[in-house]
C-alpha cells in the first residue's frame, strides 16, 4: 500500500511502486511459439504463461475445473455440458466464448495423443450459447476430463477462434491468450530473451494453487526468461543475483550452488523424467523394426544416466515404458532394453540385414543431458558396426527439424534424444506411444495392434483392466522398437532464497511466484 510521507508538516505525493520482475533461466531457448504444433517443453511452459485451460490437474493428478464453472453429464455418459466462468477475457479484450473453446479443442485434438482418442469418440461439439458448450459422444468414454485437463504436452490451451482455426500442422502467428501473463512480442529476442507482462484483466480462481489447478495469481509485474547457452555462465548469473530462478542446472553445478547460503537447490518433480532415444521409423536404416531393436539392445541405461546425470542420487534404471513406481509400470517385453550387450546387439544387427546406411543423430549441444545421451548412443552404435553422423545443433533447431519427414539428403534425420516428464508417459494415451504414423509423434512408427490396445485403454473401467491393456501396449512398443528408454532421472531447480511461492509439480509454473 502506498502511504504519503510527511516531512516538516508537508505531505509529498505517493511514490510509484517499483516494478517487480522474476528473472528466469529457462531450460532451453524459445524458438517455436505454438504449443499445439510442438511437444517441446519450452513451448509448453510458454503456453502456460499466456493461455488457460478448461480443466487442470492438481497435485494428485486429478482434473479440476479451471476455465469451466459448472458441468454435468447425462446418465448414459454420452452427453457432457460445460459452462464457462464469468469474466474470462482474451488479452485483446474479447470475451472467451464457446466457439473459441470448440475451435481450440479441434486443433489440439488433431495433434495430441489423448486428444486424438477423444476426438475418435466425439460425435459433435456444439455451442449452446456464448458460455455453454456440449460434447455429444458416439460411445461412453472414461477419460473426458482427464483429456481436456491434461497437464503436459500437448496441453489443450484455449485460443481465440481465429487463431485456433490455423491448420494444426502449421504454426500460429498470433499469440493472443487469456492466461495470467501476456507475451511481449516486441521484446522477444530469439536466442536471448523472452518477456511476459502481468495480465491485469485476468481473474484467477479463488482457490489455493495445486500443480496446474487452483488460482493462477500473477504476483510479479514481469517474468523475463534469459537464455544462457553455457551452464557455468548461467550458474554465475544466479549466484551473483542477476537471475532469480534457474530451471534445470546440471547436477554437478547444483552441487556447487548448494554451498551458497543464498541459493536453494531442490527437486521439484516427484515423478522425474524418462529419457528417450527416438528413431525415425520412416527412413533407412530404422525403417526396419529389427534394426531398431538391435540398436536398443546396445543401449545400457547405466551408461546414459552416469554420463548425463552423474550423481546416482538423481537417477535409477527403469525398464518399463511407464515411470517406475506408478500403477501401470510393468516388465512385459522389456528384455530387449535390459539386454545391454553389444555383442548380442551386433549379431542382431547383422541378422536384421543392416547395409551400412549412415545414422544421422541430431545432438542438441545446448541441453547437457541430451547432448550426453547423443554421445553415448553414437559410441554404442559405432561399437556394433553402424555408421554414425553426429550433427551438432541447438535444441530449438532440433525441435523444428524433427518435424521433417524428408530424406536425410534433404534435411531429414534418423535419431534424436529427449525426455518426457513422468506425468506425460504415465499411461498408454501418451502421444509418445502412438502407432499411427499420420497422427503420431515424431518418428512415426506404424502398428495397428498398438493403436487397438490404446483405444481399448481409453474405455477400460477398472484399474485391473487398465493394467492388462497397459502391458499389451508396452509389449507392442518393445516389439516394434519405437524408442529406446534411457532410464528415470530427476533434475533439480535452483533459485535465490528471496523467491517465494514455488509450486511442486512436474511442470514449471511461474504464477504464484514472487520475489522479496
Q: How are the strands of the biggest sheet laid out side by side?
A: 10-11-12-3-13-21-14
CATH level-four homologous superfamily name of the largest domain:
Dipeptide-binding Protein, Domain 3
What is the third-level CATH name, the topology of the largest domain?
A: Dipeptide-binding Protein, domain 3
Which geometry do the CA atoms define?
globular
Number of strands: 23
CATH class division of the largest domain: Alpha Beta
Number of domains: 3
The average pLDDT score comes to: 94
| Largest sheet geometry | 7 strands, mixed
CATH architecture name of the largest domain: Roll
Written overview of the protein:
The protein has helices at residues 41-50, 98-111, 113-121, 144-148, 161-164, 231-239, 251-257, 289-297, 301-308, 335-338, 342-351, 368-383, 395-401, 448-459, 463-480, and strands at residues 6-7, 10-11, 21-25, 55-57, 63-65, 68-73, 79-84, 122-127, 132-137, 181-183, 193-198, 222-226, 245-246, 263-266, 273-279, 315-316, 359-364, 388-393, 415-421, 483-489, 493-496, 499-500, 514-515. Helix 12 (368-383) links the parallel strand 17 (359-364) and strand 18 (388-393). The longest helix is centred in the C-terminal third of the chain and has 18 residues, at 463-480. The protein is 28% helix and 20% strand. The chain is built from 15 helices and 23 strands. With 516 residues, it is α+β, with helices and mostly antiparallel strands. It has a seven-stranded mixed sheet, with helices on both faces. The protein folds into three domains: 35-164, Dipeptide-binding Protein, domain 1 (Alpha-Beta Complex); 185-270 and 496-515, D-Maltodextrin-Binding Protein, domain 2 (3-Layer(aba) Sandwich); 273-489, Roll (Dipeptide-binding Protein, domain 3), CATH 3.10.105.10.
Amino acid at each position: 500500500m502506498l502511504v504519503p510521507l510527511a516531512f516538516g508538516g508537508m505531505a509529498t505525493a505517493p511514490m510509484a511502486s517499483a516494478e517487480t520482475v522474476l528473472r528466469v533461466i529457462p531450460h532451453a531457448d524459445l524458438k517455436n511459439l505454438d504449443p499445439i504444433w510442438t511437444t517441446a517443453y519450452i513451448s509448453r511452459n510458454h503456453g502456460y504463461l499466456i493461455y488457460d485451460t478448461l480443466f487442470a490437474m492438481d497435485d494428485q493428478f486429478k482434473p479440476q475445473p479451471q476455465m469451466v464453472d459448472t458441468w454435468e453429464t447425462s446418465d448414459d455418459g454420452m452427453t457432457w455440458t460445460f459452462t464457462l466462468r464469468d469474466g474470462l477475457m482474451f488479452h485483446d479484450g474479447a470475451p472467451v466464448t464457446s466457439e473459441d473453446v470448440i475451435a481450440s479443442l479441434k486443433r489440439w485434438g488433431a495433434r495430441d495423443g489423448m486428444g486424438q482418442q477423444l476426438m475418435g469418440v466425439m460425435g459433435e461439439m456444439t455451442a449452446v450459447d456464448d458460455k455453454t458448450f456440449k460434447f455429444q459422444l458416439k460411445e461412453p468414454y472414461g477419460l473426458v476430463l482427464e483429456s481436456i485437463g491434461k497437464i503436459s504436452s500437448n496441453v489443450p490451451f484455449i485460443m481465440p477462434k481465429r487463431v485456433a482455426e490455423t491448420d494444426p500442422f502449421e504454426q500460429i502467428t498470433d499469440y493472443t491468450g487469456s492466461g495470467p501473463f501476456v507475451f511481449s512480442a516486441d521484446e522477444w529476442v530469439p536466442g536471448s530473451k523472452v518477456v511476459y507482462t502481468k495480465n491485469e484483466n485476468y481473474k484467477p480462481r479463488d482457490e489455493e494453487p495445486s500443480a496446474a489447478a487452483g488460482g493462477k495469481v500473477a504476483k510479479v509485474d514481469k517474468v523475463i526468461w534469459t537464455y544462457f547457452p553455457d551452464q557455468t555462465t548461467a550458474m554465475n548469473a544466479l549466484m551473483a543475483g542477476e537471475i532469480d530462478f534457474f530451471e534445470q542446472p546440471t547436477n554437478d553445478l547444483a552441487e556447487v550452488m548448494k554451498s551458497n547460503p543464498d541459493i536453494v537447490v531442490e527437486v521439484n518433480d516427484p515423478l522425474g523424467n524418462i529419457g528417450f532415444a527416438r528413431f525415425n521409423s520412416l527412413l533407412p536404416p530404422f525403417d526396419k523394426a529389427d534394426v531398431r531393436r538391435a540398436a536398443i539392445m546396445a543401449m545400457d541405461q547405466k551408461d546414459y544416466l552416469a554420463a548425463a546425470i552423474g550423481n546416482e542420487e538423481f537417477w535409477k534404471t527403469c525398464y518399463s515404458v511407464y515411470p517406475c513406481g506408478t500403477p501401470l509400470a510393468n516388465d512385459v517385453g522389456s528384455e530387449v532394453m535390459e539386454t545391454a550387450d553389444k555383442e548380442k546387439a551386433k549379431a542382431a544387427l547383422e541378422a536384421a540385414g543392416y547395409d551400412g546406411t549412415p545414422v544421422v543423430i541430431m545432438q542438441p549441444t545446448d541441453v547437457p543431458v541430451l547432448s550426453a545421451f547423443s554421445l553415448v548412443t553414437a559410441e554404442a552404435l559405432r561399437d556394433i558396426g553402424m555408421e554414425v553422423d553426429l550433427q551438432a545443433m541447438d535444441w530449438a533447431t532440433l525441435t523444428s527439424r524433427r518435424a521433417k519427414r524428408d530424406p536425410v539428403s534433404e534435411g531429414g534425420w534418423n535419431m534424436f534424444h529427449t525426455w518426457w516428464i513422468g506425468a506425460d508417459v504415465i499411461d498408454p494415451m501418451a502421444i509418445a506411444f502412438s502407432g499411427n504414423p499420420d497422427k503420431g509423434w515424431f518418428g512415426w512408427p506404424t502398428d495397428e495392434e498398438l493403436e487397438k490396445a490404446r483405444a481399448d485403454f481409453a474405455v477400460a473401467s477398472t484399474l485391473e483392466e487398465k493394467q492388462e491393456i497397459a502391458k499389451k501396449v508396452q509389449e507392442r512398443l518393445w516389439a516394434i522398437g519405437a524408442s529406446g528408454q534411457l532410464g528415470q532421472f530427476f533434475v533439480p531447480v535452483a533459485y535465490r532464497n528471496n523467491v517465494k511461492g514455488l509450486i511442486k509439480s512436474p511442470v514449471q509454473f511461474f504464477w504464484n511466484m514472487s520475489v522479496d
